[in-house]
Amino acid sequence: MISFLKYLFLAIVQGFTEPIPISSSGHLVIFKHLIIVISSEALNDLNLEIILNFGSLIAIIIFFWKDIKELIIDFFSYLKTKQKKYFKNFKYCILIIIGTIPAGLLGLLLKDSIESLSSNVKIIGFALLITAACLFFIKDIKGIKKDNEITYKDALIIGLFQAVALFPGISRSGATIVGGMTRNLNREAAFKFSFLLYIPISCATMLLGVKDLVEANISTTLAFTYFICMIVSGIITYFATKWFNGIMKHGKLIYFVIYCFVVGTLVIFFL
Questions:
Q1: Which domain holds residue 93?
Q2: CA 81, CA 44: separation in Å to the nearest integer?
Q3: Structural domains counted in the chain
Q4: What pLDDT digit, counting tens, does each position of 105-160 carry?
């Protein structure tokens, strides 16, 4: 029962922190460390992280389903007909592909190095301070570019920001939104592109983790625990994404600046 509650707690942490710019991976490391401190029992279940991320992925796909469906239909419609009315969404899909490439390449090249850093809680603390500084830099920027004004160069630069966020403690949503805002995207365009950029990377991560899940000797009880945690993570991610969307529209990123600064400082000095 205690183990189930620990897993459930981490599902709640993952669900809430995944979409908002405070680093879900960093928070999982922090809370796993706290579990060790409190209970003297490590919780190093990589399969759980895969499951929780899958729950968050499903939630974000559901949240943006209308956009995703339209993009997919128009992408293939343009390939088939070459009609101009489909080009805007065709181009947007290309922008997402371009933006995905840097993180995809860096993830493959530095996978082991990145994983080795993720266990160091002090690094997480410093990374949260970096996230706070970056969010502070763009908190008052409004931007003017809409979805149809994003350039290929914009997509590549935002993709490079996402690649930086592979390092533990750097928020992925925070990094890509910072990248978008520095490229003069308006808040809504930066929010949408950030999360649509998350989907292919998350899908790739999930596919890479399927082998470990299949080969793992998972008991019925543990499988049930994974399922409940996936559902919880997904539900919370959906509502956290909706909440963050409202925060973005009103330009209240200062909340996350303060949070990341406080938590990062506490982690560095006390964990």
A1: 2-270
A2: 51
A3: 1
A4: 998 888 777 777 777 899 999 999 999 999 999 998 989 999 999 999 999 999 99
